[in-house]
């Protein structure tokens, strides 16, 4: 429903702005410009979707190997001691822990198709433990906030889009996304702990958070010691080593278990092809609306206004072009993806704005979509403090992205 309003609004604003330009400024060609933008945007959306097929098939094939090799289960077991502390209302050993851990682990590994069913299963099991079937329980809120904060280790789709749009190194946003998404998840987790009075001084909770924060802080500190060119080279090399290491881990685990690695890859790659084809209409729809919004001049006015405000506040005005993506992200994943692609197409995949939009896209999940799907699946009417905590996480992720991008790519 939200995306419907956004899509219609973008098109109507474009038409109204065109009428104003024609009547008040004598720009008779504006309607042809807007109309031509629809054809260009539709063509771009189709070409992007087709170009995405190869890369997405590759990575979904790799992910399928990891899934069958038990990598998701291994990751779940590793974080089980921590989860038992932040979900104190869930009985120890309850089956819902397995579903929650599988969901979050799948999200971290970029297995979106597998993550959603696991998440809905977890919500159903949490509802069975819920004493008030109309009101979200503490465990539900914690689970949804962790999901909406979008902690991701492998931003597969974003790297695929960057490759399609000609980025010199599609993986150069890997570390910035990791840092920003961790900031969003950490702040979201803390906000829920404060609201639910969960004891954060527990040795396991405190040790886990401090350890992860120290690691991320070390990455940021190291980034500040290097010049932009060296940092770009180091970041790209680190991303390559980490990603290749994960691939090797998946394959070795599969071989140890005597699985047919090739068949697993093929099965996953087929899913990648189907996913790429399936997003064609959605991608074309949002790119056409955003293209009309830019063609009429409304996007330029918005960016210039934000750039002026940034300049007054002492912030780099070049970052203003990424603000629409940041504002759209909690409302619509498709809309934010369209704005990200439009920014990379307009400014360049390796521009500061293009990279920042990629970081914003990978920082958090689509908050209102997650809230609607997860709570709607169990007919929860009162979400209590879930929305507030999710939006706090979104804000933290956006601030981290805007702070990190100039360090890595300024």
Any overview of this molecule?
The chain is mainly α and 410 residues long. The protein has one domain. 78% of the residues lie in helices and 0% in strands. The chain has helices at residues 2-25, 30-69, 71-86, 96-108, 112-129, 138-148, 156-164, 174-196, 203-224, 228-256, 261-278, 280-295, 298-312, 323-328, 333-347, 352-363, 367-376, 386-409. Helix 2 packs across helix 10 and helix 2 (30-69) runs antiparallel to helix 11. The protein is globular and about 70 Å long. The mean pLDDT is 83.
Main pleated-sheet profile: none
The helix tally amounts to: 18
State the end-to-end distance.
38 Å
Average pLDDT confidence is 83
**Sheet/helix structural class:** mainly alpha
Topology, number of strands: 0
Unreliable segments of 5+ consecutive residues: none
The percent range for helix content is over 70%
Query: How much strand?
Result: under 5%
Please tell me how large the radius of gyration is.
Answer: 22 Å
Choose one word for the global shape. Answer: globular
Query: What is the count of structural domains?
Result: 1
One letter per element, helices H and strands E, the order comes to HHHHHHHHHHHHHHHHHH
């Amino acid at each position: 429903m939200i995306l419907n309003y956004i899509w219609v609004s973008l098109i109507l604003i474009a038409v109204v702005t065109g009428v104003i330009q024609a009547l008040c400024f004598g720009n008779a060609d504006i309607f042809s410009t807007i109309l031509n933008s629809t054809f260009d945007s539709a063509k771009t959306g189709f070409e992007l979707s087709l170009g995405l097929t190869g890369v997405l098939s590759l990575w979904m094939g790799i992910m399928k190997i990891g899934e069958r090799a038990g990598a998701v289960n291994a990751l779940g077991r590793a974080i089980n001691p921590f989860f038992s502390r932040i979900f104190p209302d869930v009985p120890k050993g309850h089956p819902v822990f397995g579903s929650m851990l599988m969901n979050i682990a799948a999200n971290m590994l970029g297995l979106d198709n597998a993550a959603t069913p696991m998440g809905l299963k977890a919500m159903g099991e949490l509802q069975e433990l819920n004493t008030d079937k109309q009101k979200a329980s503490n465990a539900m809120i914690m689970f949804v906030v962790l999901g909406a904060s979008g902690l991701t280790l492998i931003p597969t789709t974003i790297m695929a889009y960057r490759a399609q749009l000609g980025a010199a190194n599609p993986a150069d946003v890997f570390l910035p996304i990791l840092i920003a998404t961790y900031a969003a998840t950490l702040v979201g987790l803390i906000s829920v702990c404060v609201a639910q009075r969960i004891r954060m001084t527990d040795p396991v909770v405190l040790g886990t958070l401090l350890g992860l924060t120290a690691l991320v802080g070390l990455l940021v500190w190291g980034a500040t010691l290097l010049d932009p060119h060296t940092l770009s080279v180091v970041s790209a090399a680190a991303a390559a080593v980490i990603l290749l290491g994960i691939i090797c881990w998946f394959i070795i685990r599969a071989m140890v278990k005597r699985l047919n690695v090739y068949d697993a890859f093929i099965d996953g790659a087929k899913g990648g092809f189907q996913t790429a084809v399936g997003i064609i209409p959605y991608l074309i729809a949002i790119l056409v609306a955003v293209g009309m919004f830019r063609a009429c001049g409304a996007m330029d006015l918005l960016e210039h206004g934000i750039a002026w405000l940034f300049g007054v506040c002492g912030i780099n005005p070049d970052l203003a072009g990424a603000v629409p993506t940041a504002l759209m992200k909690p409302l619509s994943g498709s809309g934010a993806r369209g704005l990200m692609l439009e920014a990379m197409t307009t400014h360049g995949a390796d521009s500061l704005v293009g990279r920042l939009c990629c970081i914003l896209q990978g920082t958090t999940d689509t908050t209102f979509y997650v809230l609607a799907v997860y709570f709607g699946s169990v007919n929860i009417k009162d979400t209590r403090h879930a929305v507030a905590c999710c939006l706090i996480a979104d804000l933290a992720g956006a601030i981290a992205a805007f702070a990190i991008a100039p360090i890595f790519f300024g």
